[in-house]
């Protein structure tokens, strides 16, 4: 492609979605990806001959409105399993707690009842509340936020008013619970609902999944609802019977005339007199475009690709303050298929205190000796999600 209208840096799912919308709108879009394949966190990795590890997470979904807008079903997007596999917490005594996000699931209720009849009675109400809270969060994510100037709020505030109306429709009780839960720790949230520690810990594991926070950290109530929304409940829901999200998005981009270049590392976003003029690749090639969209993280985009000299000093300071505290490790085991693990999402999180102590190690740049683990299987591969393993270790390094 020559003379693209818009360059997009990075072919993760965010970059691909942006590219697909812009190409569908008639813009000449060129996506530049540094890796050999698109997909970012969604891309599988080849760890050895015949050993392709699954992506960062074993399941994932795009919002239904994105799937509809981009007609991804026509481009082969596979369907998410309608019935979620179970979410199984492995208990220290050798037993297990089997849960699903169906309020009336007899197996879940029986499993909880072995721990607490009171908790079993409250489970359907809790599932209903979580579904309502997730629906509200989904609506919030879809709502364009107006700028804060009074005139702009009045002129662009209709989506915001619609969101407020949706919140009011939750009813006074759930409205209060949703607003309160967003800033709570998952310890406080689960204490409000349940008494059995294994049940509270199983829920708490979902609240700290993928974030550098412990079960006692404020805001993990929000991450619980966020992860519940993304998974459609507690367990991962793998995509089956069709193309992956990545393949469907690439097909949608190409069908609208957009292009994707892999192994094209962007080293600089070119700026001339405060105006973007294109990008420079690691090869030295320069590509001219009047607009550049970056799907890289904001700190790398602003301080690494654009560069601090092109930005106001106070803005640079704010960008430097963005926290990027990765603490997830993955272990993939290739088996002969007779690993004996059931389908679903298996969790090792015996108590909220266990989750908090695992997080404590990461705070000091150490690898947790008693981690929170989440185990899934894909064919012959067993994948173990491990928290907490800080990206930067205080002593030594990952080499």
Textual characterization of the structure:
By secondary structure, the chain is of the alpha/beta class. 39% of the residues lie in helices and 19% in strands. Strands 7-6-15-16-17-14 form a six-stranded mixed β-sheet. Strands 9-2-1-13 form a four-stranded parallel β-sheet, with helices on one face. A three-stranded antiparallel β-sheet has the order 10-11-12, covered by helices on one side. Helix 1 (13-24) packs parallel to helix 11 (245-255). The chain is globular and about 65 Å long.
Task: Please sum up the structure shown.
By secondary structure, the protein is an alpha/beta fold.
General shape:
globular
* Structural class by helix and strand composition: alpha/beta
- Number of beta strands: 17
- The total of helices stands at 14
Uncertain spans, ≥5 residues at pLDDT below 50?
none
Mean pLDDT: 89
Q: Could you give the distance between the termini?
A: 40 Å
What does the radius of gyration come to? Answer: 23 Å
Strand content: 15-25%
Report helical residue fraction: 25-40%
Strand order of the largest sheet: 7-6-15-16-17-14
Major sheet: 6 strands, mixed
